[in-house]
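STRUCTURE:
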């Protein structure tokens, strides 16, 4: 059994898709980052970086519980555990790792920064231009790569594709359409045709609604206030209440 401690953010969805693709038994344990549940001591034991997602494999190495944080590491762990979506051939394996790390190092951070400045700090035109331009460059990298091969890592569907897809859902809002990005569009449509991806998208809506209902009447936190987040982490790890 895999316990997924998470929210259905793009990083959370990566793991949800992987779990659905592999068919392994799993359950979602909601961690509402909007009300600060990522700072609870029990979550910090799983993810010291106070981020989601994290997993607990109740049948991990040595047949005991094992915890993994960081979405890229979780995908790699699950691929090796199940023997799926990671090629056995050495060259193809390294190709997969390169494109997995491309998502972790570039798509996630840059798309996230662009989203932040577009939505939370729209008055900062310099930052908006910087990150929006970088997002379009990264879509062009994807377009070029997918003009060379069927999937990001080559001719096999892999954890590299699973990692990239959730972050790319908003491509139309950025003007990334079939006319200018035919290879990316072909790949994205192929991703959306997969039953596991479709189940993920349905579950994402259901989980968000469930979490919103559970959070009714509870105070929210500003997850973008880095000073507050550092203070919350300090209180949580020193035994004080995260709400103090």
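SEQUENCE:
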């Amino acid at each position: 059994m895999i316990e997924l401690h998470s929210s259905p953010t793009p990083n959370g969805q990566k793991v949800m898709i992987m779990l659905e693709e592999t068919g392994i038994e799993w359950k979602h344990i909601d961690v509402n980052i909007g009300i600060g549940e990522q700072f609870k001591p029990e979550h910090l034991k799983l993810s010291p970086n106070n981020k989601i997602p994290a997993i607990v494999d109740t049948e991990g190495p040595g047949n005991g519980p094992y915890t993994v944080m960081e979405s890229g590491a979780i995908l790699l762990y699950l691929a090796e555990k199940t023997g799926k979506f990671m090629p056995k051939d050495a060259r193809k394996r390294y190709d997969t790792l390169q494109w997995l790390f491309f998502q972790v190092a570039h798509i996630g951070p840059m798309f996230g920064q662009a989203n932040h400045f577009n939505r939370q700090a729209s008055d900062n035109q310099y930052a908006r231009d910087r990150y929006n331009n970088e997002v379009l460059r990264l879509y062009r990298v994807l377009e070029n790569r997918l003009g060379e091969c069927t999937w990001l890592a080559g001719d096999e569907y892999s954890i590299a594709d699973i990692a990239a897809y959730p972050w790319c859902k908003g491509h139309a809002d950025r003007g990334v359409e079939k006319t200018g990005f035919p290879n990316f569009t072909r790949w994205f449509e192929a991703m959306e045709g997969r039953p596991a991806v479709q189940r993920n998208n349905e579950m994402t809506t259901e989980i968000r609604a469930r979490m919103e209902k559970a959070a009714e009447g509870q105070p929210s936190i500003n997850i973008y206030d880095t000073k507050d987040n550092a203070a919350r982490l300090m209180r949580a790890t020193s035994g004080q209440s995260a709400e103090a």
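REMARK: The longest helix spans residues 90-119.
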